[in-house]
Amino acid sequence: MTAVALETDGLTVRFGGVHALEGVSVSVPQGAIYGLVGPNGSGKTTLLNAVSGFVPATGQVLLLGHSISRWAPSRRAAHGLGRTFQTPKISRNLSVWELLRIGDHLRREQPWWKVALTPWLAHQEELRMRARGAAVLESLGVSPALIDARVLSLAQGVIKMIDVARAVIAEPRVLLLDEPTAGMNEVEIQNLRARLKQLNDSGLTIVIVEHNIRFLVGVCTEVSVLNLGRKLCDGTPDEVFRRQDVVDAYLGEEEVARA
Amino acid sequence: MSFLTPSRRFAAFVAGAALLVVVVQLTLAGPDLLIVDEACVYAIAALGLNVIFGMTGLLSVAQAALMGIGGYTLTLMVARHVGMLPALALACVAAAAVSALTGVIGGRIRSHYFILISLALAEGIILVLVNDMQLTGGTNGVALAASPTVFGLALGTPDGFAYVAVPLVFAIWYLTDCLRASRFGIALLAISTDEYLAAVAGIATNRYRVLATVVGGAYAGFAGGLLTIADSYIGPQNFGLDTGILLLLIVVLAGAGSNAGTVVAALILTYLAHGLLTLTVVGELIYGLAIVILIIVAPDGLAGLGRLARRGARTAWLRLTARGQPA
């Protein structure tokens, strides 16, 4: 049996009287690409938010064997949990490099007094990290020449990919992606698929919340279907998307035929 | 990327400070020198506010009141025969501690509501300063018990103070630039961009927010201590809400968390405030209008104007050099 990278046990989230999540238990094996699907409002993003620590939840969350349920979001990130957002959280016009620097914060060792006393060393360090930032961009199929571009001046699909780079540069062990293909064109989706497989080959466990079933079928090793805050079923994409209850709850016959 | 490497930047700061000291010595006298002295004090306090507001995004009007905390701490310590430098250090600590209060309370409050916390703190401090007659001398203030000298320069005189304050501004400006480039500065950039973004990057947002108010408060304490030394006197009128808003205007005019802009804006606004406010009520009106116009003309502040000027100069240069070449 393979080790478990991320596990939730009886995860429940309530917003007032609404049960956004009701006792959801999922188990993501290490090295998996795990898909979370379900209709709008089924609790997919809420599940990611509960795992990240952004919404109060009852139940257990285990990351690489540690119970992280009571940890602050930043501590979860420091423990190897990376994530992106459906709409990248960039309220001001940062450059790509500034965003990558933020992503790389955990690995940075530049206290201000070191920058002040040994500015030349700090500068070398900065150049090294910048080169790494460019390398990460390139490894995700984004032109490293964009490193000084303003993020918000780029196309939505590129911004989404740069947000992935922002998360990947911190070298997480489990990466949560929230609707990564939203806003991407077909070429960009193909690129994303290839790059995620590459990242997965290098040992990264990936959890994807996604509407695009065709994308998931091509890339996931396992999927869970959520409906109305509960888990409907899980298994390999082939098994799951042939089940009649999944088709009824979410897919419709057409989507299955296309996939 | 900055076009100055850090080592060159450091050299630029040293050269700039030296140059400005010479300029001050050669050109300024009397009231102008007093304005430079005051601009130096405000520049330091505003650099601190730039950490709190410009870099972290916490809108505060308490910076002047925190200067008051620093000034009174220094005065009271010196009256109890504490040396000038330790007293100055204690002034920083006291202001930082009080400033941390805003950070702790404000951590639970998002964005612009922070200004209400800072307003309450500022008014509270002034009330204590005015009403606790025994400790602070009330509205009359207190004279500083000793007048310090550095290398034979009397800091209580306008030119003696300028010799020390101008290099100090440059040193603190340099340190603030380093702060911004450091791990700490990047955490603040993340927080001011988006709380969720900061959290998923492993940044403990509440802790860094409090740290930012601590650092910015220490600047205010230092500036307040310096002002007290320059005047050899302290009174509550120097630390009212009008000064708090002046400091905020300096940072807004500077634009986008720019340290260079903050220093230049401190000089401009101190000069404007003094030069025009002496012209009675009309002066204040002009001052207010000037601020409005500045913000309309330069929404990104001096930093934005600086970028425009650099871009303009580059295109002009490219056009100039292109003319010499065959088409």
Tell me what the structure shows:
The complex is a heterodimer of chains A (259) and B (327). Chain A is α/β, with parallel strands linked by helices. Chain A has 2 domains: 168 residues, Rossmann fold, CATH 3.40.50.300; 79 residues, no CATH class. Chain A is built from 10 helices and 11 strands. The model of chain B has no long low-confidence stretch (mean pLDDT 84). In chain B, the strands form 2 sheets. Chain B has a two-stranded antiparallel ribbon. Chain B has one domain: ABC transporter involved in vitamin B12 uptake, BtuC. In chain B, helix 3 runs antiparallel to helix 4 and helix 12 runs antiparallel to helix 13. Chain B has 14 helices and 4 strands. Chain B is mostly helical and 327 residues long. Classes of the chains: A alpha/beta (259), B mainly alpha (327). Chains A and B meet through helix 2, helix 3, helix 4 and helix 5 of A and helix 1, helix 7, helix 8 and helix 9 of B.
SSE layout and pairings?
The complex is a heterodimer of chains A (259) and B (327).
Chain A lengths: L3 E12 L2 E7 L2 E3 L3 E5 L6 H9 L5 E6 L2 E2 L5 H6 L2 E3 L12 H8 L8 H6 L1 H21 L16 H13 L5 E5 L7 H16 L3 E5 L3 H7 L2 E6 L2 E6 L1 H6 L1 H15 L1
Parallel strand pairs in A: 4-9, 4-10, 7-8, 8-9
Antiparallel strand pairs in A: 1-2, 1-3, 1-5, 5-6, 10-11
Helix pairs in contact in A: 3-6
Chain B lengths: L5 H22 L3 H25 L7 H17 L4 H23 L7 H18 L1 H4 L5 E2 L5 E2 L2 E2 L3 H24 L1 H11 L1 H6 L4 H27 L1 E2 L6 H14 L4 H19 L2 H18 L3 H23 L4
Antiparallel strand pairs in B: 1-4, 2-3
Task: Provide a quick synopsis of the model.
With 259 residues, chain A is an alpha/beta fold. Chain A has 10 helices and 11 strands. Chain A has helices at residues 44-52, 73-78, 96-103, 112-117, 119-139, 156-168, 186-201, 213-219, 237-242, 244-258; strands spanning 4-15, 18-24, 27-29, 33-37, 58-63, 66-67, 81-83, 174-178, 205-209, 222-227, 230-235.
